[in-house]
Design goal:
Blueprint (H helix, E strand, L loop, with lengths): L2 E7 L4 E6 L5 H7 L17 E6 L2 E3 L9 H5 L2 E3 L3 E3 L3 E5 L3 H6 L3 E12 L4 E7 L1 H4 L8 E5 L6 E5 L10 E7 L5 H9 L5 E8 L11 E6 L4 H12 L6 E7 L8 H10 L3 E7 L18 H4 L5 E6 L1 H13 L6 E6 L5
Parallel strand pairs: 1-7, 14-15, 14-17, 15-16, 17-18
Antiparallel strand pairs: 1-2, 3-5, 3-7, 4-6, 8-9, 8-13, 9-12, 10-11, 10-13
Keywords: Iron, Iron-sulfur, Metal-binding
Organism: Marinobacter sp. MMG032
InterPro entries: 2Fe-2S_ferredoxin-like_sf, 2Fe-2S_ferredoxin-type, 2Fe2S_fd_BS, 4Fe4S_Fe-S-bd, BenC-like_FAD_NAD-bd, Beta-grasp_dom_sf, Cbr1-like_FAD-bd_dom, FAD-bd_FR_type
Length: about 350
Amino acid sequence: MMYKVALNFEDGVTRFITTLPMETVADAAYRSGINIPLDCRDGACGTCMCHCESGIFEMDGYIEDALTEQEARRGYVLTCQMIPESDCVVTVPASSEVCIRSQQADIQARLVKINRLSESTLSFTVAGDQVRAMHFLPGQYANVLVPGTDQWRAYSFSSMVSQADESVSFLIRIVPEGLMSTYMVEKARVGESITLRAPFGSFYLREIHRPVLMLAGGTGLAPFLAMLEKIQQGYSEHPIHLIYGVSHDADLVHLDKLELFANAIENFTFDACVLSEKSNWPHKGYVINYIEPGHLQDGDVDIYLCGPPPMVEAVNDYIQEKGIRPASFHYEKFAASK
């Protein structure tokens, strides 16, 4: 049977789509000209996670890193796997403008810089006329084609587009035998061509109306660097605090950039912590160890979280245990790809 699905976007806009028999919500939306943020279409990445407010549906074939049992019990769904069995109402954690108007396009760029930041992390910068004309929101990501292969890898923009040199940067973790890692460490040369497809994702900086708490795990720092760059260009009267956690000392990168942001943005502060007991860093432990009551403002706070699935779940559990209902909670899970 065919069912109607109401898609409620965070800016108050509602769009109705009709699903064909055995058609997923994501496919029906795409057929209707609506791009619900997604990446894999296989129930593996969690990018297309939305909340089903009402209705009956079937949903199989996904992995727990993309959608945990707790999230499923709370009504969250992966629209790339959700097949309605009745009319449904689905809340999409993005604005209608991002989903309805954005068109992802292939962008040809040239590699202009590779910077080995530590044993575990590097950044790379691309530039070109098409990069200069690219539009994305701070926090979104691009799919990057690994040169010499047909494989794409997703990386968050770690900067906004520099109009001075038409460039934009990315931050990636060096994964042993990883396709992109191997290319960047062993093969890449400045001047080579790079293909991007962008923008993607519903994890992006919203207009700031209240205090903001940013939580970054590892290279999940990348989208926050772009967000802070955007904030620096304007002004926020509200406090913004970032807690940046990594596993080992070598994973701590761009602390100099965070210091510059702290000096340039009046209300911005940050903490960094390292999980390893062998660390020489003064702050050890998990990110949640450094969340203070003042950061949560009794729920009058917008929380942004980007990190690996265990970190996302730990923060979710922590906030629920504290009985806090934040004004908004935006998060993105990621796992390092081979």
